[in-house]
Specification:
- By secondary structure, this protein is an alpha+beta fold.
- It folds into two domains: 2-87, Glutaredoxin (3-Layer(aba) Sandwich), CATH 3.40.30; 98-213, Glutathione S-transferase Yfyf (Class Pi), Chain A, domain 2, CATH 1.20.1050.
- Helix content is 48%, strand content 10%.
- It is built from eight helices and six strands; from the N terminus they run βββαβαββαααααα.
- A four-stranded mixed sheet has the order 4-3-5-6, with helices on one face.
- The longest helix is centred in the middle third of the chain and has 29 residues, at 98-126.
- Residues 21-23, 45, 50, 61-64, 76-77, 133, 226-227 line the site of glutathione.
Length: 227
């Protein structure tokens, strides 16, 4: 148990994840930034394994899911990160004052909606191997390619004026953006050549130990990833 402002908060006990998938990767990076190690359990979503026992115990089929010592299950990557941030405030990744909290939340959501999600939709609706997870609509995959390009432009504008996505320092918004851009390989797209600020930032992010350690093993087949 962790004592916080007079309350006792249950410690994280287990992270259920799927290593090649991008949402669990966001949580892995977050934990590594906090120097926290939590035992993990893998669920292979590409076989549909998550629709069985995992759903039964967690209450949703999604990964990641964090189990706390009191038996509570937390899902939603950002909810998990929010809990970890409260347990381990340093380094601060979700904002230390009202304005930085709001800015980080705003940029995290913008990157999630305008880039991360469109990339995932291209993969989920465009790659036949993803039919295990999705009632596919190929037109939706195509429509999302142009949304990905708009997302690139949004991020480039932002990184041309700011050293990090949300605030001056590294935050959870950078985590969402770096995971999204790394995930481009699954749809065989790349950061545009002329997105100079994004490329410089991405190169720098790629050197962070948390980002390196969170990579799926290189032996993982390119398409065995899901959002
Ligand atoms: N909003 C959730 C999304 C979680 C999510 O979509 N996870 C993917 C893996 S990256 C998943 O569980 N996919 C299984 C499926 O779609 O059946 C979060 O932020 O954690």
């Amino acid at each position: 148990m962790v004592q916080k402002r007079g309350m006792t908060l249950p410690r994280p006990e287990l992270l259920v994840e799927c290593r090649p998938a991008p949402n669990p990767r966001r949580v892995r990076i977050f934990l590594a930034e906090k120097s926290l190690e939590i035992p993990t359990e893998q669920v292979d979503i590409m076989t549909g394994a998550h629709f069985g026992d995992h759903t039964g115990r967690v209450g949703t089929f999604h990964v990641p899911a964090l189990k706390l010592l009191d038996g509570t299950w937390l899902t939603e990557s950002m909810a998990i990160c929010r809990y970890i941030e409260a347990l381990v405030p340093d380094p601060c990744l979700m904002g230390a004052d009202a304005l930085s909290v709001a800015r980080i939340e705003m940029w995290q959501r913008r990157v999630e909606f305008e880039l991360f999600s469109p990339i995932a939709q291209v993969l989920r609706h465009g790659n036949p191997k993803m039919a295990v997870l999705e009632d596919q609509c190929p037109e939706w995959a195509t429509a999302n390619v142009s949304r990905v390009h708009k997302g690139f432009a949004m991020l480039e504008r932002r990184l041309s004026e700011s050293p990090h996505v949300a605030v001056q320092d590294f935050s959870v918004a950078d985590i969402t953006a770096v995971v999204a851009l790394d995930f481009l390989r699954t749809i065989r797209m790349e950061i545009p050549e002329d997105a100079t600020a994004t490329r410089i930032w991405f190169e720098k992010m790629g050197q962070r130990p948390s980002v390196i350690a969170s990579r799926a093993k290189s032996s993982a087949p390119r398409t065995e990833v899901a959002q």
